[in-house]
Amino acid sequence: MIECPTCGRKYGWRDELEGRKVRCKCGEKFMAAKPMGGPAADLRPKPPTRRAPPPTTRACPSCSRPVGANARLCVHCGTDLTTGKRVPLGPSSKSKGEVGLQLTGIGLAIHVLGAVIVVLSVLAGAAAGIMVQQAPNSPWLQPALLLAGFGTLGGLGLSAAGPLLCLGVPSEHGRPLVIVAIVGFALSIGLEVAAEYAAAGTTNRMIFWGVALKGIATVVSLGATACFLGFLQQLTILIDNDTLHERTVFLLKTLFFIIGMVMLSWVPILGCLAALAAAIAQIVFGIAYVFTTGQIALAVLRR
């Protein structure tokens, strides 16, 4: 071994270095002298040892089964990993926490089905509007009108029924948001029914109230969807999925943009542009919402 006289750093010896000046990492140059005895070694310093990556799982303190490193609830025994409280087990082999998550996954699947029907209803309504102007005698006009009208009600009904199965999650993981979303979805269904009834009237006053109730129902439905997205955000934290969590954050921002555009659509000057922007954003949001919620449902059911 040879040693730097300035910093004391040591290097391995090679015979071809004898009598030559070498440079240390500290910048000092010195004459390499053959050490007394000892085997020749490589001059290059040994590479630093690599640290092991942080663990992705940890053991539940109650049942010792593996859970996510950032998980808050053990899906095997129902223990809240933050408070340490454990949900007592019933006669079933599954814990209440695990059964609650399974029911939540089924509820999300039903909710996704309702969202798909709502998206198809929106597209059918747009197609019906075009056919009324361009092809009023088209055989597809009547089915499109039926899907746009009753499809919206059926889709909202499923969207409201699905979250009922999500009430098995603990309160600290978003149950209040689920309750508010259910109330909002139910209220939007009532407003949709009233809007369809008023729009079928023969007077201008009834038609006006039909359009107004339709707009209010849209805002209420979007608000309920925002609450349910907040619950999904908490659920992605519970199942420890950062990718789906980021997607729910993006969907929430998009939804707030849509709500703003819907509000601006009532302004006389900006109404047309805002309504067009809201319609396009709703279609994009609906498709992204269906895919994201479906992936969350699959992630929950696979646990």
Characterization of this structure:
There is one protein chain. The chain has 303 residues and is mainly alpha-helical. It folds into three domains: 1-47, no CATH class; 59-88, no CATH class; 99-301. The chain has helices at 96-134, 141-161, 175-199, 204-238, 242-264, 271-301; strands spanning 2-3, 10-11, 21-23, 29-31, 57-59, 66-68. The strands form three sheets. The protein has a two-stranded antiparallel ribbon. Helix 5 (242-264) runs antiparallel to helix 6 (271-301). It is elongated, with a radius of gyration of 32 Å. The relative contact order is 0.09.
Please give a handful of descriptors for the protein shown:
two-stranded antiparallel ribbon, 303 residues
